[in-house]
Amino acid sequence: MADAPAIKLYPPYLAITAPVVAVILDWGAPLGWDFAGPAGQVAFGAALGGFALWLAVSGARAFKAAGTNVDPKQEALVLVETGPYRLTRNPMYLGMVTLQIALGFMFSLEWSLVAAPILWAALNWGVVVHEETYLTQKFGEPYKALLQRTRRWI
What we know:
By secondary structure, this protein is mainly alpha-helical. The protein is built from five helices and no strands. The longest helix has 30 residues, at 110-139.
């Protein structure tokens, strides 16, 4: 067994695919929601998008500062519990899902809002549960304690 989580899906591909598919579907098969994109809605989407980017970037920076791999296909070298990891065990993935929602509001992208829970499910069951199994086996009790005190998502 390689020293890396046996993830089924690769998160960066999911983060790119979800909005691209949403744009294609919105163009080819619009849902017809009354979703005109007033200024307040766009501002909310932009603020949510900023928060999403902060989550993802600060999560990656915390990994780099701790000296562990950001790529989920590579070995975890240490447990990270600083920065956004104090609030959620998956800030980078939460940022991806939140950005999908933000795009829906910013650009009146109806399919983006439909895609967000699908993206969450893909990340949760295609990545996170496999990472958690791997991290439990690798780090044992310290990781089990982390599971008890920090939420998986929010």
